[in-house]
Amino acid sequence: MGRSRGGLTTKIHALTNQNGLPIRYELTPGQAHDAPPCEQLLDGLQPGQYVLADKAYDADWIREMIWEQGAIDVIPPKANRKLPAEFDAEIYRERNKIERFFGRLKASFRRIATRYEKTSANFMAMIKLASVRLWCQFYESAA
Predict the structure, then answer these.
(1) d(Cα 107, Cα 129) in Å, to the nearest integer?
(2) CB 27: neighbour CB atoms within 10 A?
(3) Does the pLDDT at position 65 exceed 90?
(4) What is the mean pLDDT of residues 28-51?
(5) Which H, E and C letters describe the chain, residue by residue?
(6) Over the Cα atoms of the chain, what is R_g?
(7) Which of 111, 74, 68, 115 is nearest to 93 (CA)?
(8) How far apart are alpha carbons 134 and 136 in whole angstroms?
(9) Where along the chain do its domains lie?
(10) Dihedral of the CA atoms 75, 93, 42, 108 (nearest 10)?
């Protein structure tokens, strides 16, 4: 967990499916950059799969890692990028499912949104518990 003037902070990095349901997680300190956890999260992509991410993940090494696995990146370029990469804006609109996932995750358990847990192991356990709840709610309402 990272420490700042506001207290303990943690970033949750998640890989979700097309329905916005979680598949994998990584935790980093709040002051850490977003890109390094990509290596673990994006390992094992399927050919033809789309990877939607925000501008924080606009790095050549991330795009190459996605391409090497046969997947397609849909990442908008950063404003300061010298040669802006192309991306499909129509497909990128689906990224709202990822943002809604984080909203549902924090709404499921208040202790996730307010970071009650003091250790990263306990915090990850609460995230996984909330994720199980999201998966159950999705399949319960689909039946």
Answers:
(1) 13
(2) 17
(3) yes
(4) 84
(5) CEEECCEEEEEEEEEECCCCCEEEEEEEECCCCCCCCHHHHCCCCCCCCEEECCHHHCCHHHHHHHHHCCCEEECCCCCCCCCCCCCCHHHHHHHHHHHHHHHHHHHHCHHHHCCCCCCHHHHHHHHHHHHHHHHHHHHHHHC
(6) 16
(7) 74
(8) 5
(9) 2-142
(10) 130
Q: Enter the tokens of residue 75.
A: 């990442």
Cα–Cα dist 19/132, whole Å? 14
- Distances in Å between the Cα of 40 and the Cα atoms of 13, 29, 34, 36, 83 are 10, 16, 12, 9, 27
Tokens representing residue 104 in the block? 């549902």
The CATH T-level fold of domain 2-142 is Nucleotidyltransferase; domain 5 (3.30.420)
The two three-digit tokens of residue 110, written as one number: 């208040």
Q: Under a CB-based contact definition with an 8 Å cutoff, are residues 70 and 46 in contact?
A: yes
Query: What is the identity of the amino acid at 31?
Result: Q
Hey, what are 126's tokens? Answer: 């609460």
Determine the pLDDT at residue 8: 63
Q: Kindly report the length of the chain.
A: 143
- The pTM of the whole model exceeds 0.90: no
